[in-house]
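Q: what sequence does this backbone want?
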């Protein structure tokens, strides 16, 4: 028998090889899908919140917010209203999401808010310069939105 001569492979070893290959692809695909969708519910809460702000429905947005007792609707409008610090919010772009270490009870969603509709293209430097980055904290248990606690503000 020569070095390059081959022998017939047994059917059992072919079947085992195919089963292992399929199992590996299923695990990789499932892991990749989980990675892409791991904070989907939290991002959806931010989309609902910012869509309410962009539509000018401040009461609905305030209800999605998780305010402290001292943070009134007037304070909220001072931050998110048309003349507020982040306003006017006409469009937004979710850029990143991360979960702080130490078993936190929520995630930080990083969003760029813009006073222009639609959201400015990357090559529109003038309009992009008017966009502001805001970090929002979304709780796992009730999907409420608020500013992140100071210890979780930066990764």
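A:
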């Amino acid at each position: 028998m020569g070095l390059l001569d081959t022998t017939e492979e047994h059917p059992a070893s072919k079947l085992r090889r195919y089963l292992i290959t399929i199992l590996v692809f299923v695990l990789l695909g499932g892991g990749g899908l989980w990675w892409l969708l791991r904070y989907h519910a939290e991002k959806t809460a931010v989309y609902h919140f910012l869509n309410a702000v962009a539509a000018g429905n401040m009461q609905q947005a305030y209800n999605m917010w998780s305010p402290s007792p001292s943070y009134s609707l007037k304070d909220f409008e001072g931050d998110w209203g048309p003349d507020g610090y982040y306003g006017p919010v006409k469009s937004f772009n979710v850029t990143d999401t991360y979960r702080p270490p130490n078993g936190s009870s929520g995630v930080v969603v990083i969003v760029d808010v813009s006073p222009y509709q639609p959201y400015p293209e990357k090559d529109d430097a003038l309009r992009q310069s008017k966009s502001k980055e805001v970090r929002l904290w979304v709780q796992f248990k009730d999907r409420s939105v608020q500013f992140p606690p100071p210890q979780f503000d930066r990764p």
